[in-house]
Structures are given as structure tokens and as C-alpha cells.
Amino acid sequence: MDSQTSSQLETVPPAIARDERVFSKPVRWWKSKTSWKQLGMAGVFVGPWIIGLLAFTIYPIYYTVRLSFTRYAGFGEMEWIGLANYRRMLFDDPIFWKSLWNTFYYTGLAVPIGVVMAMVLALAMNQNLPEIPLYRVLLYLPSVLPLFALSFIVWALLDPNQGIVNEALRSIGLNPPNWFGDPRYAKLGIVILAQFGAGQIALVFLAGLKGIPQTLHEAAMIDGAGVLSRFRNITLPLMTPVILYDIILGISLGLQAFVQSFIITDGGPVKSTTFIVNHLYDNAFRFGQMGYASAIGVALFVITFVIAIAVFQTSHRWVHYDLT
Amino acid sequence: MATITINEQQIQRGDAKRAQRDRTMKHFQTQWVPRIILILMCAVFILPFYWMLALGLKSNAELSVYPPTLYPHDPQWQNFQDSTEVFPFWRFARNTLFITVLTIVGAVISNPIIAYGFSRIDWPGRDKVFLFVLATVFMPFPVIIVALVDTYARLGWMNTYLPLVVPMFFGQAFWIFLIRQFMLQISRDMSDAARVDGANEFQIFFGIILPQCIPALGVIGIFAGLHAWNDFLGPLLFLTSEKLYTLPIGLTFFRAANAYDIRFNLLMAASALVVLPVVVLFLLFQKSFISGISVGSVK
After folding, report:
1. CB–CB of A320/A238 below 8 Å?
2. Do B140 and A248 touch (CB under 8 A)?
3. What tens-digit pLDDT sequence spans chain A (324 residues)?
């Protein structure tokens, strides 16, 4: 500020820089007419989303909870039965517990492997080769396939007789299982299926990799750090936010798994790929137990919420934010 | 004196040879080792595509050959034609297209409007509420499918396209996020000047902001179209009569009672046809796709 300005100009407050003008709330904004006017205008634009949220998310959640206390077949009477559905779910339904086990088994494998997969893919996509755009497209391509199509294809790929994967494994001396026909391996088949979609999240990882300043790597290399050491001490810590995002996303998606097991095995063999949502679907649309299915839905909601919060709360122990 | 000079020359030549060896070694390590690994990885990831096409072209006889042939020895191009006769392919394609177009319209209309409210108007609590919008992404859809089915049944919306299309007119969190990012980048000078001149928010939205958002709208349109074309769970839940089914549902027609009776070659051919638009679209736009997603997702 020019100290030789006239006394008039000295009373003018400095202009807020255009770039930084995130809305700075005046204290007690509810007393300002302008604020209310802004709120009103925003309401018109944001309104559709609010309506959609209420109609297609909030209300269905409320209705699901209400349904979970009833016996209802989808038509006719909706009979209030209190906590009976929950008692049945926890004490009288072995398939429910099997579905929980299946879902956690699948998620517990698919998420860590998925994170590793995404990192490997991103590192591969980050290589300094002239033809790298071609590789990026090829690696990303399978994740473009919709889940139902990928399910059919991987089903064919892992077929014991017609699939090429087992043939390849046999040729190196292994004895590959009948993936989707064997209760011990069906879930693994679905874990394998999930990895083909890694291309999509790999792009986010790639963006994260590119966000690491090259100067850090160069300084480390001058100090004699090798590739592995640089990965462990520079890349990995700076990638932890992206990894956290992938973990939460992966867990959320893993807990909701349905389409793959529905299409390929319909929950079998011997219920080994019956995930929580498979069980929900069967009860709602095959056994006419909409009330009970809603209770399963509530259980899924609570489980997802608790796990997401748990992961997020413990994340500060291993995630490094903004180490610049 | 002469002896020392020759030794210096020899030393220099020796150093040069070592440096050349080191360079070659480094070139190999930084160029060829990654290249080989990448080629192997691409082979694995291309496998689904390759197998879909290879299996789709095999004849019925070749399907039962054991061990399975690596490529179709007798490519049956009419498999593509035959696969469209297993289920009402073209009707389902028309249905899927109809839903897709409506979805794109809904997405391109609603998301910019909502994003404008979250980016170009300042109001108390705006950014906190937006965090909540993002959080809704983690709300598992399967939890509410029973409630939705019953509600739609009571509304008379079951077995119509309404449950699939109507929600698209009310915004989707991720797409709002994308357009909002875009809108935040637009310089405030023009909209501020317009406000000073007395323009209301609608005029600013339609006249200034929206025209600058056309590229982002293109991206949203493509995402929305893909979402609708590839949707399996929605049609599975809400459509009950065959004349309304979509292509993804159509593929399930190949399943027979006995797993051994499935005609995988026709199933793969049909799958190839169903994903063809998606793959073509991706290959056309892949440059902006890949760079767009990675740029947009930085923090």
C-alpha cells in the first residue's frame, strides 16, 4: 500500500483478490438480506437435486426401514411384526451369515489386490516410452466393458473346458480348478473378474503419480536412491490419499457386489457366491419376503456406513496429506 | 614422453568404451525392460476382448474341441447374425437407445443447472452442502431396491421406463461435481460485470456460463449415455415384460437350464454387438477420455 496516498484512500479496504473469493460468510449471515437473496437464487438452481435426493434417496431409505419391520409379499397386506425380521436374520438364517462371509471374503481379497493392481497399472502407464499412449489405451480398454458383458466373457475365459486360462495353466504344469463350478474357487473367479476393471481407477492413480514433483525424485537420485527406495519413501507416502480413496470406494463397491454373481453363478455353487445383495434379491423377488429383504438392506447400510467411518477415522495414521 | 601419451590415449579409449556399455545398459533397463513388462500386461488385459471375438467366431463343432483352440480355425461370421435371433435383439436395441437418449437429455439439462447453483452463486454453507452431495455417492443403491420397487409399483411406474429415466432429470452427484469443477474455472469478470449491469442469475447462466460449458456437457452426455446403455440392474428390477427389455437383459436369454447347453459362441457374438457402440465411442474419444479423467481428478 502506498504510504503517500491521501487520507481519503487510506480508509478504503483492500480489494479481495478475485481468485481467493471463496464465499466468506459475514458473521451472522442470517441477518443480511443479500445472503437470503443469494440463498433463494441458489435454491432455484440446486432445487432439482434436493427434490431428487428426497424422492429417490431419503424417502426410499425411510421406506426401507419401515418395510423392515413388516411382513410383506409385494402385494396385499403389510403386516407389522416388529423386530421379527431382525431376529430371523441374526438367529434363524444361516444363509444370511454365509452371505456376509462371502461378501467379506470377496471384498477382503478384491480391495487389496485391486489397490496393488491399480498402482502397478499406473506405474506402467507412467513409463517414459514413445508408444506409451498405445499401452494406456490397451490397459484401460477392459474397464470400458460393462460389468454384465465382462461377467459373461470371464465366465467363458475361466470355463474348464472351453476357456483358455485353464489351458494355459495346465500347460505350465498346474492343475487348475473348475472356477465357477467349484465352491472353493468361485469367489476367486469373481475376484479375478474384478481386476479387469482396474484400468479406470488406475487413471486416478496415474494422475496422483503425475502430481508428485519430479524434483523430489531427482534429488533422491542424486543422493543415490534406487528405484525401490524411491518408491517406498517418495511415491508411496505421497500416494496415500489416492490409495485411501480407492480403498473406501473398493470396499463400498465390494459390499454391494451382485451383478457378477447373479449372472454367472446365481449365488452358487452351493451358495458360495451368494453375496449380501444376492440374498436380498432372492428374498425380495423370489421368495416374496420384501419385509425381510428390507431388513437385510438395512443391515447392509449399517455395515457399509460403519466400515467406511472406521477406515476413514483410522486413515490419519497412515495417510499423508499435502506434503509440499 | 611418447610412452606416457600412448597410455593416456589407451585410458581415454577404455573410459569411452565403458561409458558406451553403461549407456547401452541403462537404455536397456529404462526402455526395454518396461516395454517387455508392458507388452505382457497388455496381453493379459486384452484377453477378454480377444476371447470374446475369438469365441464369438467359433463354430459349434469347434466349441467342443478339447483342448480349446487358440483362435477360430473356421470363423463363422454368420454367428453375429444368428446371435441376433436368439432374443429380440433389434427391439431390445431400440428400447435401449430410447432410454439412452432420454437419459442424456435429462443429464445435460439438470446437471449444469445444479452445478451452477453450487459454483457460480455464493451462499452460506455452499461448500459444506456440496461435500454432502459427494458423500451420497457412497450410499449403496441395493439397500433401497425393495423400497423403490414397491413405491414404483404403487405409482404405476413399474414396467415403464420412468424409474430409469426420471431420476436422470434431477442430477447425479458425480456429474454435478465434474461440471462444477469446470464452472469454477470460468473467470468471474464477465459474470460480475453482467450482475453489475443488472442481469439476473438465469440470464447469466444461459447467456454466459452455459455456452462456455459445451465441452463439459459433451463429456457428461457421453458418460450419461454409457451409463444408460450399460445399465443392467435398473432394467432387471423395473422392467417385467419382454417387449420393454433392454440389450443387457437380452444377453441373459442365452442361459439355459443346463450349464453345458450354453452356446458360448453366440453369446460372445451377441456381447460383441452389444458393447460395440461403447468400444467405438471410447476409441474415438480415448484421448480426451483418458486425459480428461486424469486431469479432472487431481485432488
Report:
1. yes
2. no
3. 444 444 444 444 555 444 444 555 566 777 778 888 888 888 999 999 999 999 999 999 999 999 999 999 988 889 999 999 999 999 999 999 999 999 999 999 999 999 999 999 999 999 888 888 899 999 999 988 999 999 999 999 998 888 889 988 988 988 899 999 999 999 999 999 999 999 989 999 999 999 899 899 999 989 888 888 889 888 999 999 999 999 999 999 999 999 999 999 998 899 999 999 999 999 999 999 999 999 999 999 999 999 999 998 998 888 887 655
Report the residue of B294, B295, B298, B299 to disrupt the A interface, i.e. the one with the largest count of A CBs within 10 Å.
B294
Domain residue ranges of chain B, discontinuous segments joined by +: 2-63, 87-254
Return the beta strands (E) in chain B as ranges: none
Q: Is residue A89 within 8 Å of A107, Cβ to Cβ?
A: no
* φ and ψ of B222, to 5 deg: -65, -45
Please indicate, yes or no, whether residues A120 and A79 belong to a single structural domain of this protein: no
Q: How far apart are CA B249 and CA B229, in angstroms?
A: 11
β-sheet bridge partners, residue A80: A70
Residues 6+ positions from A242 with CB-CB distance below 8 Å:
A204, A205, A207, A208
CB contact under 8 A, B144 and A203: no
How far apart (Å, rounded) are the C-alpha atoms in residues A174 and A196? 22
CA-based nearest residue to A195, from B34, B232, B48: B48
Q: Which residue has the cell 474348464?
A: A160
> A126, A144, A165, A322: which to substitute to probe chain B, counting the most B Cβ within 10 Å?
A144
In this structure, which topology does domain B87-254 adopt according to CATH?
MetI-like fold (1.10.3720)
| Number of independent structural domains in chain A | 2
Q: Which residue has the cell 440374498?
A: A279
Range of the domain at A60: 30-84
Which of A43, A141, A294 lies at the smallest CB-CB distance from B147? A294
Same domain, A58 and A78: yes
CB B150 within 8 A of CB A285: no
Q: Which value, to the nearest 10 degrees, does the dihedral of the CA atoms of residues A29, A30, A35, A36 take?
A: 170
> Rounded to whole angstroms, how far apart are CA atoms A290 and A281?
9
Least Cα distance to A217 among A117, A316, A123, A315 occurs for A123
Residue A47 shares a structural domain with residue A175: no
Among positive and negative, which fits the CA dihedral A215, A216, A220, A223?
positive
Q: Could you tell me which chain A residue has the CA closest to the CA of B272?
A: A149
Q: What is the ipTM of this complex?
A: 0.84
The pTM for the full model equals: 0.85
Alpha carbon distance B46, A158 (integer Å): 15
Burial class (CB in 10 A: 0-12, 13-18, 19+), B189: exposed
Instruction: Give me the residues paired with residue A79 across strands.
Output: A71
> How far apart (Å, rounded) are the C-alpha atoms in residues B91 and A131?
42
Q: Do A146 and A61 sit in the same domain of this protein?
A: no
